[in-house]
From TrEMBL:
Pfam families: 7tm_1 (PF00001)
Gene Ontology biological-process annotations: cellular response to pH
Organism expressing this protein natively: Nothobranchius rachovii
Phylogenetic lineage: Eukaryota, Metazoa, Chordata, Craniata, Vertebrata
Subcellular location as annotated: Cell membrane
The protein's name in its UniProt record: G protein-coupled receptor 68
The entry's keywords: Cell membrane, Disulfide bond, G-protein coupled receptor, Glycoprotein, Membrane, Receptor, Transducer, Transmembrane, Transmembrane helix
Gene (UniProt): GPR68
Amino acid sequence: MSNMSEKDVINCTISHEIHQYVFSCVYILVLLVGVPSNLYSLYHAVLQLKQRNELGVYLLNLTVSDLLYLASLPLWLQYIFQGDDWRHREWLCQLCGFLLYENIYISIGFLCCISLDRYLAVVHPLRFN
């Protein structure tokens, strides 16, 4: 076992500028792609519901979950542009964090429901319509 000197220690710091640019670019891209595509998905979910298709229920809930998350992204962008300084009320910060995790868990849950529904429709086509 060898002793490490101060010369051997690598300076491992994260540049805030890179963090600011990468996250802001990703969030802006997600907003630009996510809002129109989720609104389009919402339209098709409503069409599915009008046809009494159960897939429309899953799609509607998944889309609403995504839209709620997308609604919090401008606040996250402002947070990043202000040097990781939250200038809004604390409850709004907690709400944005809640929307982030809500989106993750609800999306996983509804994708599992859709997968199970499709599995049952393929494996047991006469029992599950």
